[in-house]
Design a protein that fits this description.
By secondary structure, the chain is an alpha/beta fold. Helix content is 29%, strand content 23%. The protein contains 13 helices and 14 strands. The protein has a 9-stranded mixed sheet, sandwiched between helices. Strand 3, helix 3 and strand 4 form a beta-alpha-beta unit. Helix 3 packs parallel to helix 4. The two termini are 22 Å apart. The relative contact order is 0.12.
Length: 366
C-alpha cells in the first residue's frame, strides 16, 4: 500500500511512528512516542520522547509549533497521558495549546496514565483512536507486554539468531566464527540497547567468552544487564562477563542444586546468582521477580530451542547470511516438534531490511 492509498490520518500517523524510535534505548520504562502537529495540511511541529524524565513527544512538538498549534490536529502514537508523573500531563499541554483535534494510534495500557482521550473530549477537543494501532503496539511491544497479565509472569522475550540461508547457526565444527557481517552486528548492538538484559546460554558463554555489552552509536540510558542461563554454575570467574561485572551487572541463573562453592566464587567477582526451579517457565518467572521486564536472547541452540518449545518467545530477529552450511550445521530448530502445517504456530512479519549482504526478518508471535 502506498501513501496515496492511505487516509490523511494514516499518513500523518506513519510520520509520527517514524519519529518515535529516535528514543530507542533512552525512554524505558516509558514507551517511545512520536507526535506531529498538522495545520492546513502542513506539519508545523514534530517531536518525540527523547529521554525518560524529559519532555514527552506532545510537549516537544507543541514547542516547535508555537502559536500554529491553535486549531491544529495532533497525531500521537500513544494516547496522551492524563497523570502527573516525571512531567505534567500531556493532556494539559494539548488543551492549553488550543489544538482542535487529537488522533492517537493506541490506547495507553498503563492504568496510571490511561484516560487521556476522555479528558481531551471533556475539554471540547475532538479525538480519534486506533489509527495504525498495530504498528504502534509493535513498536512498543515491551511496554504493552509489561502492562499485560503476561508481563507479571515473565519478561518480554526477543530471540535473535544469526543464520545461514539454510537456517544453521554454526558449521559442522561448531567453531566460533561470525556468520553475519559488520552491518548486521552493528544492528545487533543497536537492538541490545532497547532491552533490560542481553542473555545467552552457558554453552555460548563458554565457547565465545562474550562481553554482551552495547557498543555503537546508540548509548542506552541504562546499560542492559548481562544474563547467563547456567544451571550448574559453569561460568568461569575469569571470564570476560565475570571480570566486568562491576562495570555492567551480570546475573547467572542457576539450578537449586548448583554447587555453592561455584556460587561463592562468582559472587566474589561481583556476579549476581539467582537460583530457579527446573523448567524454562519457572526460570523466566524468577527473572521477572528479579526485576527484568525484557530480555534480548542471543543464543545458543539449546537455549533458543527451549524458549521456542515453551512458546515464550514474543519476537524473533532473524539475520540471514547468504551462505549454506549443509545438513551437519547446527540448527536451533532441530529439537522442535514437527506439527502438521494446520497446527503450526504462526508468526507475523513486522519488517524485513538489508544490512550489508545480510537480511534481517523481524517476526512477532500471533
Amino acid at each position: 500500500m502506498t501513501d496515496a492509498d492511505l487516509s490523511d490520518d494514516a499518513v500523518w500517523m506513519r510520520r509520527a511512528l517514524e519519529l518515535a524510535p529516535r528514543g530507542w534505548g533512552r525512554t524505558a520504562p516509558n514507551p517511545m512516542v512520536g507526535c506531529v502537529i498538522v495545520r492546513d495540511g502542513q506539519a508545523v511541529g514534530e517531536g518525540w520522547h527523547a529521554e525518560y524524565g524529559g519532555p514527552h513527544a506532545e510537549v516537544a512538538a507543541l514547542r516547535q509549533a508555537g502559536d500554529a498549534a491553535r486549531g491544529a490536529t495532533a497525531y500521537v502514537t500513544l494516547e496522551p497521558c492524563a497523570h502527573h508523573g516525571k512531567t505534567p500531563p500531556c493532556t494539559e499541554a494539548l488543551i492549553a495549546a488550543g489544538v482542535a483535534r487529537v488522533v492517537y494510534a493506541a490506547s495507553d495500557p498503563n492504568p496510571k496514565a490511561e484516560g487521556g482521550a476522555g479528558v481531551l473530549r471533556a475539554a471540547g477537543i475532538e479525538t480519534a483512536g486506533g489509527v495504525e494501532a498495530r504498528a504502534a503496539m509493535d513498536q512498543n511491544a515491551v511496554f504493552f507486554h509489561t502492562h499485560s497479565p503476561a508481563g507479571d509472569a515473565r519478561p518480554f522475550i526477543a530471540l535473535k539468531l544469526a543464520l545461514s540461508a539454510d537456517a544453521k547457526i554454526a558449521d559442522r565444527d561448531r567453531g566460533s566464527v561470525w556468520i553475519t557481517g559488520e552491518e548486521a552486528r552493528a544492528e545487533t548492538h543497536r537492538l541490545r540497547a532497547g532491552f533490560d538484559a542481553v542473555a545467552v546460554g552457558i554453552g555460548t558463554a563458554l565457547a565465545d567468552d562474550p562481553l554482551l555489552t552495547v557498543r555503537g552509536p546508540v548509548i542506552p540510558r541504562i546499560p542492559p544487564a548481562r544474563v547467563v542461563f547456567d544451571r550448574e554454575l559453569r561460568l568461569p570467574p575469569g571470564s570476560k562477563l565475570a571480570r566486568t561485572a562491576g562495570e555492567v551487572p551480570v546475573t547467572v541463573v542457576a539450578g537449586d542444586d548448583a554447587p555453592e562453592a561455584r556460587e561463592e566464587a562468582l559472587a566474589a567477582a561481583g556476579v549476581r546468582v539467582l537460583r530457579a526451579p527446573e523448567g524454562i517457565e519457572r526460570t523466566l518467572e524468577t527473572l521477572r521477580q528479579a526485576g527484568f521486564r525484557s530480555m534480548f536472547v542471543e543464543g545458543g541452540a539449546e537455549l533458543a530451542g527451549s524458549l521456542l518449545r515453551a512458546g515464550v518467545v514474543d519476537r524473533l530477529y532473524l539475520f540471514y547470511a547468504p551462505l549454506f552450511l549443509g545438513p551437519r550445521g547446527l540448527s536451533p530448530f532441530a529439537a522442535l516438534e514437527s506439527p502438521p502445517i494446520a497446527a503450526a504456530a504462526r508468526w507475523r512479519r513486522i519488517a524485513a531490511a538489508a544490512f550489508g549482504a545480510d537480511t534481517l526478518v523481524t517476526l512477532a508471535r500471533e
